Amino acid sequence: MNYTFESLLRFVNLTTSGLLAGSLGFGEQALVPGWQHELPNHADRRARAIAALTDATSYFNAIGPLALGTAVTLAVASRGVKPLKRVLDAASAISLAGVLAATIMVTVPINKELDQQAPTDYPSDRSLSLAKNWSRAHAVRTTLGVGAFLCAVASNLARPRQAK
After folding, report:
1. What is the DSSP string of 15-64?
2. Is 161 inside a domain boundary?
3. Residue 102 domain-assigned (yes or no)
4. How many domains is the chain built from?
5. What is the pLDDT of residue 93?
6. Could you give the CA distance from residue 37 to residue 30 in angstroms, rounded to a whole number?
7. How far apart are CA 136 and CA 133, in angstroms?
8. CA 77, CA 27: separation in Å to the nearest integer?
9. Which of 37, 38, 81, 121 is deepest in the core (most CB within 10 A)?
10. pTM
11. What percent of the chain stands above pLDDT 90?
């Protein structure tokens, strides 16, 4: 892979990984497919209005897969880089895959199930269990997202291999 293309991929990967990590850690939404299904019922009108904009959500949905795609490309296609850079790129790709998997396979289905429950005065044991599982899955995916971003940063900061 040529140096200019690799630099562009690293920039895109770093940017998208950072956006994803920030959205997981500090917001109510993840920038991965299905995030609009995670907004709680009591979310304010502005958040619901943003989620209703189909054009905007399609761009938000692309951030997670774009981060994963660039990380996988860097881990597989980079030539002549230090082994440490390859390991960091691979760790970033694995972490981003975990973020997408946790969102699509755990948190979104839990939210759908919670939304389908009838309102009650006191939460049932099932809804408490679901809420606890959602919190755990969110903590795992946030950790993976932040870890992927840190790996991308470290990979970008690692010194390139010197030509002989």
Report:
1. HHHHHHHHHHHHSS--SSTTGGGGS-TT--HHHHHHHH-HHHHHHHHHHH
2. no
3. yes
4. 1
5. 95
6. 10
7. 5
8. 33
9. 38
10. 0.75
11. 26
